[in-house]
Amino acid sequence: MNLTIEQLELINSFLVKNEVIFDDIRHEIIDHIACDLEENYSDKPFPEAVKTVLKKWENQVKPGSSFWITSWSCFPKISIKKLEQLSFPQIVFFALFIVISSILNYFFTDMNASIIEYENLFKTIYSVWLVIVLFFSIKLIFTKPYTTY
Question: Can you give the residue ranges of every domain in the chain?
């Protein structure tokens, strides 16, 4: 079964109705749905086949939110799962960095004067790193991308 432009537009309208606003994600999902229709439901009429396939995809394209990604925006659940997989190592690294820097800061404050130079170096590096993280965080918050890249 080859899908017509009208049939693809029907799939697109389903995704728009479910608030899949990112063009690249929407195009990928349209491609997956179209391939599923052509491979598995070519013997059924299109209206019946598309209902079955869209019902399978309905739960994955519903808007959802995640504490790890953002709590104030909703994205398709399929995107949230992928973003969680991509951001989890960064979150773990950030948490470890905070814990290690807090421990080092605690021990450096109790050392003698010769170590104070290292403490100042550490505080400088930490301050620069914090400014960089804040800059990119603010930049990310105030930009509204329509793709996931």
Answer: 5-61, 87-142
Q: Could you tell me if 147 and 24 are in contact, meaning their C-beta atoms sit under 8 angstroms apart?
A: yes
The three-state DSSP-derived secondary structure of 127-142 is: HHHHHHHHHHHHHHHH
Specify the DSSP element, H or E, that contains 93.
Answer: helix 77-109
Cβ atoms < 10 Å from Cβ of 75: 22
Element (H, E) at 100: helix 77-109
Q: What is the DSSP string of 9-63?
A: HHHHHHHHHTT---HHHHHHHHHHHHHHHHHHSTTS-HHHHHHHHHHHHHHHHSE
Q: Is the predicted pLDDT of residue 113 greater than 70, yes or no?
A: no
| Nearest-10 crossing angle of helices 23-40, 5-17 | 130
Q: What distance lies between CA 46 and its chain's CA centroid? A: 33
Residues 16, 22, 25, 30, CA torsion sign: positive
What pTM does this model have?
A: 0.56
